[in-house]
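Supplementary Text 2. Reproducibility record for the structural model of the 223-residue chain.

All settings were left at their defaults, and a single model was retained for analysis rather than an ensemble. We include the record here because the model underlies the residue-level annotations in Supplementary Table 4.
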Amino acid sequence: MEDSIKFTRLRGKVANVEGMLRLKRLGKIRLGIKKLSASTGKEYPSETEYFVCPKEVREVFGEQPTELHGMFLSNDPEEIYQEKLALYGSTGLKCHGNGEMAMRRNEEGKWEKRECPCEFLKSDEHPNGQCGPQAHLMVMLPKVDLWGYYQITTRGINSRVSILRDLKQMQDMLGRIARIPITLTRVPQEVTYKGKKKTHFIVTFKPSMDIDAVREFLANPAN
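Retained model, structure tokens:
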């Protein structure tokens, strides 16, 4: 009797789950809170100088942490940091794009391609626009949970520039970004917009390594 062939994975057209094998998101870490306007009675977002964390993260790092210890799960920057233009409606994400092309839900709920940006983009000329840039940084917090990541979302240009700069420096210096301990912090930065100065608390990070640890790592990068 012939030995039976062992099958371990679906292949071909029926193997339609690969695109669903994403990293597991454990929760969101926010950069602000909602406040209630005394004049209008409506909620509005207000930036904080600390990370607004889920309960299990606060139990490890404190109620209002300005510093988190983590690491990234991939060497591909586009897997752990993603930017897009996003438009939300009452049912969630309605349209998202990269500034050249976008995908928008039609009245039937199906996604359709369209040019980007469009008339909904918020700008100085269109201050009431509903679409704007946002970015998601995915970071694992080993002291909290080893089996997934937490998502940090920012819409501020200063944090986006800071994150991209830090990713590039880390890659240039160490040759990789995955599984290297990092320290994330909220740092005050004064910015000027339309002649007015304001302090924002940007997101930044760096490897949790001193110069001796960096030298040892560069001498033995495979470790």
